[in-house]
Amino acid sequence: MKKIVVLTGAGMSAESGISTFRDSGGLWEQYDVMQVASIEGYIANPALVTQFYNERRKQLFDVEPCRGHELLAELEKNYDVTIITQNVDNLHERAGSKHIIHLHGELMKVTSSKSPNNPRFIKELTKDNLEVKIGDLCEDGSQVRPFIVWFGEQVPMMEEAINYAEKADIFLIIGTSLNVYPAAGLINYVPRSAKVYLIDPKAVSVPGSHDVKIIAKGASEGVKEFIEDIKNL
């Protein structure tokens, strides 16, 4: 069974109606990214950052997976599929994908401010319990914080993502500008023998020396075309 490894970014979730940081009208125009997506921002104003992610969680329940999410899940009938996502939403899970690596954390989880990557302290929130408040304490006595990998923090799932990229027969990139490292460097670990595709309606500069097939469409239409194309491989 061929191994398909998919790297997804904000453009994947944008079709579901989730605001992006980079696009015009996106979250960067409403917030300074370093205030709400950096460890320094959290230390400076934990109340602002906590409320920002409370709002992002609520937004999750106003949206549904797009057709692109669903098509990626359906690929599992015929391929060994691993989703590596830069997105912190749960839309891949809700669409039915079974093997997902979240590089930048998960919006529906919280953790310790002292030891954010300790599995003992990572807890999943429920739809009925989305709010984190200043004063909510973890088992280690620290303030509960979002389970998000912020600028200035290590990406703990990167090594696992590299392991899968190294074994890919087909590597598919969807909806990412490839400007955020280390995620953008994953393509450098993809075997030279692998087929590489990129789905994005905008021009994206792809690092490395792979021959990349560009599908200049949105996520859903692009994944449809991709599926048709790989039937011939």
SS element count, helices: 8
Structural class: alpha/beta
Number of strands: 9
- Overall residue-averaged pLDDT value: 91
Strand coverage percent: 15-25%
> Rg to the nearest angstrom?
18 Å
Describe the structure in your own words:
The protein is α/β, with parallel strands linked by helices and 233 residues long. The chain folds into two domains: 1-18 and 65-104 and 155-233, 3-Layer(aba) Sandwich (Rossmann fold), CATH 3.40.50; 20-62 and 110-148, SIR2/SIRT2 'Small Domain' (2-Layer Sandwich), CATH 3.30.1600.10. It is 27% helix and 19% strand. The strands form two sheets. A six-stranded parallel sheet has the order 3-2-1-7-8-9, sandwiched between helices. It has a three-stranded antiparallel sheet with strand order 5-4-6, covered by helices on one side. Helix 6 (91-95) links the parallel strand 2 (80-85) and strand 3 (100-102). The model has no long low-confidence stretch (mean pLDDT 91).
Which characteristics define this entry?
Rossmann fold; 27% helix; 19% strand; alpha/beta; three-stranded antiparallel β-sheet; 9 strands; 2 domains; SIR2/SIRT2 'Small Domain'; 233 residues; six-stranded parallel β-sheet
Quick overview:
The chain has helices spanning 10-14, 33-36, 39-44, 46-60, 67-74, 91-95, 158-165, 219-230, and strands spanning 3-8, 80-85, 100-102, 105-112, 123-124, 144-148, 170-174, 195-199, 212-215.
